[in-house]
Every structure is written in C-alpha cells, then in structure tokens.
Amino acid sequence: MRQSLLALLARGPAHGYELKQDLEQLLGSAYPQPNIGQIYVTLGRLEKSGLIEGEEIEQSGRPNKKIYHLTDAGRDELRAWFDETADEPRVRDEFFMKLALAPRTGIADQIALINHQRRQYLNTMRDLSKLAAAENRDNRIAHLLIEGAMLHLQADLDWLERCQEELEELE
Question: Who's near 21: CB < 8 A, 6+ residues apart?
C-alpha cells in the first residue's frame, strides 16, 4: 500500500478518498479493494517518515480535508522501489508443506490434498473468468491483473498434476 500511494501522489496532490478511488479505478474489481482506514493510516505513516506532506484545506459547510503531496524523499523512495526486482519464486508454500508432512501424520492423504487444492484453484479460475467478463473492457490494467492471476493458477494446476504423477509412481 505504501508504494502504491507514493506512486499515485507522484502525479500530483490528492486526499485519501481520491487515492482510494484511483486505486479502485486502476486495478478494477479483481484486486482487493483498499480500505479507507488503511489508506489514512498509511498516509499518516508516510507523513511521519517525511515521504509526503499533508496540508489542511478549509471547506465551507464541510469538515476540512487534508491534501497530501510527495516530498523529494518520497520521490527518491519511489524511484528505489521501481528499481527493485520482484521477489524470488515462492519456495515457502503452505500447501507444499501440508503435502510433504501428510504421510508422517496419518491424518491426511496426499492425493486427497491435491484434489482438494485442485478444486479450489479451478473454482478461483472460474470466479476470475466471471470477473474478467464483468470488468470494463477499457481497463487494460485490470484485465492484465486477472490474466496474470489465471496464468499463475494454471501453472499451479500443472504443478499439482506433476505432484500427483510423482506420488502415484511412488505407490
């Protein structure tokens, strides 16, 4: 959330609700909708860190609103974030830990775990397909997000198939 807000503020000053709307509009309904409370807490932390500055704006007949803008330090942090590469592929995976430990417990069957996880991935893919169909066609970012999630799910399904084949060979 931190870098997302900095990135939105890089184009110009805004208040919390504008930032929430910008994120929702940019990412569409596939991305978890930001909580306005979380946005304001994060803005407060960014301000304390000196990455943004807030300015109270008087409004007639309404409570004052606070407009935030990026500082030079915030712009530097944002540049550093864009220069970072994404995390390594996930190696610590809770499902894989369950799969590896199941035979030692006598509580769960590995093939049943795989089938259960496969159903979950397929249900998620179905939900994402519905979401893609309902999403505004002009929102290319949201469609790329959904497509990326579906490609990851397909890779996970392929991996589950590979796990099942390996485990069935061991039997």
Answer: none
Concatenated DSSP letters of 56-119: EE--TTS--EEEEEE-HHHHHHHHHHHHSPPPPPP---HHHHHHHHHHHHTS--HHHHHHHHHH
Residue 82 has pLDDT above 80, yes or no: yes
Supply the DSSP string of 7-54, one letter for each residue. Answer: HHHTTS-B-HHHHHHHHHHHHGGGSPPPPHHHHHHHHHHHHHTTSEEE
Are the C-beta atoms of 30 and 142 separated by less than 8 Å?
Answer: yes
Q: Which amino acid is at 150?
A: M
- Per-residue pLDDT of 132-144, as tens digits, reads 888 777 888 988 9
Ramachandran assignment for 165, one of left (phi > 0), alpha (psi -120 to 50 degrees), beta (any other): alpha
What pTM, to 2 d.p., does this model score?
Answer: 0.71
What is the arithmetic mean of pLDDT over 58-86? 90
State the pLDDT at residue 111. Answer: 93
